[in-house]
Amino acid sequence: MTAELVRGQNHTLPQTRLEIRISAGAPVVAGATLGDEQGRVAGVEWIAHPGSPQLHGLEVSRQAAADHRLAVDLDALPDGVHRVTVLLALPTGAGGPTRFGAVAAPFVAVTALDGTEIATFTLTGLDSESAVAALELYRRQGAWKVRAVGQGYAGGLAAMLADQGVDRAAELAGTIQEAVARGLARSVAPPPPRTPEGDRVRHAPAPGNGQPPVPPPAPPQPEPLAEPAAPGGPINYAHPRRQPTAPPPPPPAAPPARPGQPAQPVAGDATGWSMDERLYNQVWGMFEDLARAVAAYRSAVDFAESRMDQELERTLSDPRSRIGGAGDRAREEARAKRDELTARARESLDRDLAQLAAESAVVEPALPAPYAGWDNPVWHGYRAPMEIPMALRIGDLHLPERADLRIPLLVRLPLERGMWIDSGRTASEAAALTGPDQLRRLAMETAVLHAARLLAVYPPNEFTVHVIDPAGSAAGALAPLVRSGVLPSPPAAGAQGVSAVLAHLTRRVDLVQMAIRAGAADSLPPDLDPAEQLLIVNDFPHGFDDRAVTQLRYLADEGPSVGVHLMMVADREDASAYGPVLDPLWRSLLRVTPVADDHLADPWVGHAWTYEPPRTPPGSAVLDQVLERVAHARRTGSR
User: Fold this and answer.
1) Structure confidence at residue 322 (pLDDT)
2) N or C: which end of the chain has fewer CB within 10 A?
3) Of 506, 619, 487, which Cα lies nearest the Cα of 558?
4) What is the mean pLDDT of residues 626-633?
């Protein structure tokens, strides 16, 4: 029976191999400290955090996330450890909440390896605190217990570490937050919160599959639709040009299922003000479903492996079992049980994957142009839109459990962060098989496809693209943009061209910011282009002096809030001479690759997803056709 703890209450732990599961209303940093009998932490080597996630007997998450699973083996902890304190903190500099009072109360559960809850604790009553000691596992008279702590710290992670006697706590807190920032840079931003009626239908797996129980994660905390708020506030879920006056219509009904069969999928089974919004919610629902289904499968496999290890350890610890064939039989039986549990888990996963694949087969052909791949026939009937769409497809994601099940990666519009298309060699197999020159060419071609899609999904003359190509090395890849006439000026070359474009966009950012602060947005100069601006930078830092680098960092920091966005096509190694000066620039951009690479993480469980960049079908002229229609619409102002 699960013990529901309140602050200060304790409960005896029946076993020493545990999971600590954390659910929060926003991404949080999870870590743990090891303490002696007085609770003192001997040093940084007794602290597990995203920058150093593994200790003997303890492993924590490598990034900030709304859900965490911490693995604990109390018997494997270092000698002298009598206390394990689980810490939570809000990431700094991420534009999210700065105090726990602004998010849903975190929920912490101590579970067995099969998911059975032993004790739970909901951390209520937090307000200005940005860090909290959630609970502690402690040893008393040879037995381990769990205590609900809930001690918050308004001074943040540094104050909490200092309270545990950690030397140079502020320095360590900065190191931890730096590691978190690197993790957030590779994480896909979560979608806006759903209304209670906006959750999609999820079909439960068939009972009796024999899989070890894995409890479902805590449901997302719903938030009402809201007007734009200060950083950290709720995201406006309504389209900026749409003024809804009635509740959204219900999603289309799915065809009735035959007895014993799951319901047939239907495109648009999430609620929204339009079919586009329903499809957006449905795609994100599929993304989340796949992430959690694979997490449950991997957890079940880990449980099966752990159970086999425990059975072998118990059997072989008895000297009698080592005589004759008893030991061999015990090993065979343990492996057979492991294989049976793993097979059942895989069977359950395959059912979930088959259902998601069937849903994908229905949804993909129904996607509108902004969400559709370049091979979708919707592009052959392209017409310039009258309003900005909710989101934009920038590629596909998949997991190794089923590589052919691709989830469209949709990002909200207007863009909230720029993009970095990494033209350097990565650790992926695809990159290893691709030469350096080909990687650079593919990176620039990927940038052109992203820019073309942005131009196509915005109304005529509401999106402008500028290009910096200092050495002219990307002339071939840029040809579709140049010959169609969608660029307001030729790609800038040389140091003088770099300086001119950066000065132009920096001036625009300055003028718009001053007008907003003065409440005089209608007094902008007549020569200022009111459209959203995208700057594509190729071959960085070639052609950039220190002043140009500073301007580029300024555009990355201040540009998105006033409609100026960066798309960097660069190899970070080429800019290594600048050292850590450029680290904030790289972290501010969403890194994607020109070839398949498993570097992106989901916001729910932190899987490493393989990103597939967009591609046009071989021999297709769809890109040129779409850009010609975009150019025509820009010239005539018509669709």
Assistant:
1) 61
2) N
3) 506
4) 96
The tokens of 603 are what? Answer: 């916001």
- Both tokens assigned to 44: 């940084």
SS3 for 351? helix
Exposure string of 591-617, with b = 16+ CB inside 10 Å and e = fewer, is bbbbbbbbbbbbbbbbbebbbbbbbbe
Q: Locate tokens 């903190």: which residue?
A: 89
Say what percent of the chain tops pLDDT 70: 86
Partners of 111 in beta bridges: 19, 117
Q: How far apart are CA 489 and CA 550, in angstroms?
A: 23
Among 229-233, 354-358, 618-622, which stretch is predicted with the lowest mean pLDDT?
A: 229-233
How far is it, in rounded angstroms, from Cα 470 to Cα 474? 9
Nearest-10 crossing angle of helices 156-163, 169-185: 140
3-state secondary structure 238-268: CCCCCCCCCCCCCCCCCCCCCCCCCCCCCCC
Residue 622 banded pLDDT, cuts 50, 70, 90: very high
Distance CA 458, CA 599 (A): 29
Task: Give the DSSP per-residue string, 136-148.
Answer: EEEEETTEEEEEE
Structure confidence at residue 616 as a pLDDT band (50, 70, 90): very high
The residues with which 22 forms a beta bridge, in sequence order, are 68, 108
Cα distances (angstroms) measured from residue 421 to each of 39, 569, 601: 47, 5, 16
| CA angle 74–79–81, rounded 5-degree value | 60
What does the alpha-carbon distance between residue 326 and residue 274 come to, in Å, rounded to a whole number? 66
- Give the pLDDT score at 216: 37
pLDDT given at position 373: 96
Please tell me the predicted confidence (pLDDT) of residue 339.
92
Is a pLDDT exceeding 90 seen at residue 269?
no
The helix, strand and coil proportions of the chain, stated in percent and rounded to the nearest 5, come to 40, 20, 40
pLDDT of 207 > 50? The answer is no
Strands 419-422 and 590-592 turn out to be parallel
Strand order in the sheet with 564-570: 463-468, 532-540, 564-570, 419-422, 590-592
